[in-house]
Amino acid sequence: MAKMAASVVTESGEDVFRKMFKFYKRREPPPDLREVIDFSSGAASGGKIVPFKLDQAAVSDQEAACVGLRPIRDWRAFGLQGYPGFIFISNPFLRGSQAFWVRQCLKTYSQKPNVCNLDMHMSPNDTQDIWARSVQAIRSPISFKRQPKTLLERLRWVTLGYHYNWDTKTYSANSYTPFPADLHMLSVRITAACGFPGFTSEAAILNYYRSDSSLGIHVDESELDHSRPLLSLSFGQSAIFLLGGPQRQDPPTAMFMHSGDVMLMSGPSRLLYHAVPRILPAPPQLATCLEELSCALALQMGSVLEPVSEEDWDVCSRYIQSSRVNMTVRQVLGPGQIFPLQTDDKHRMVGCHDDANSGKRKRTCSDPVGTVDT
Ligand SMILES: O=C(O)CCC(=O)C(=O)O
Ligand SMILES: [Fe+2]
Description:
- The chain has 374 residues and is α+β, with helices and mostly antiparallel strands.
- The protein has nine helices and 14 strands.
- It has helices at 2-5, 16-25, 61-66, 98-108, 130-139, 151-154, 181-193, 284-291, 310-320, and strands at residues 49-51, 76-80, 86-90, 115-116, 157-161, 203-210, 213-218, 230-236, 238-243, 253-257, 262-265, 274-280, 323-330, 353-355.
- Bound molecules: 2-oxoglutaric acid and fe (ii) ion.
């Protein structure tokens, strides 16, 4: 791979990013993962991982605990040489608190008025309560073998706040529902600790990955204010994340994202191309931590976390045994900024959610630049 990354376009004329995407997506023979950076262990860093200095005074221990985070001084935060503005925090969550956020992603944020992929071809009545319509089947011992799939198993994306329009690749004032207060609070605390006070969570895209899902090469540029960071939170199974350059064909760096890991793309890294070619089982030492997600958590006064019932956790833990959920939280508008009357096509996101199993793209992806061969 190192040899391949040396030039931007290979002999076959295929760009290096696309080639690496295919390399890591490949099943047979399985790809060599030795060059994938693992922030949890420091593996394959090649000296590229550097410590990142957090603003410890920005968030008190109690404020951190209220959203399920460890004291800031205990976080393991890193930067990556060659990627100024890219910040990686290796699972800053308190033991047991990820369960709450997983439950929010599966049970709460999937509810109306939020928008999801199923709304694209089903009536609002039929997508009314994805969780309630799915739990019984998921809890039955033969559920994962059974056909047809539950709505929860068919969920691919949910949008919050300003709902991203996959066709026009824009946000608009006309398509907005209140952003969840708990997720806003989590986002504000993380971004403040990373040196970005006053972050306003205005939109989020939640991606639900099954073991054979991937996310194509794209850049998130539809937001109108790129001076605000893009915050990414991952739960469940692990993923390989490819972080590229400002040009689509620039060679990317591969890294693992495990459950609880947090990433910020800010400054010069805010508009870098990236992709998720592969979902992988959580490594054994982290898988035990996933099983422990339901352990009782001492809740602080003022905490946004609520206890997760055993029944709910039973469904969540079955789901994340084979799935990954990622939330990207975005500030769309700068202070005092408003949407232009007519949004134009320069704010485009070329991401597309591949589902290798269905052979169909779950997101409209009209720009061929964003298309990834599967
Ligand atoms: O799943 C991930 O880690 C990345 C998600 C992403 O890039 C996006 O939603 O724009
Ligand atoms: Fe993205």
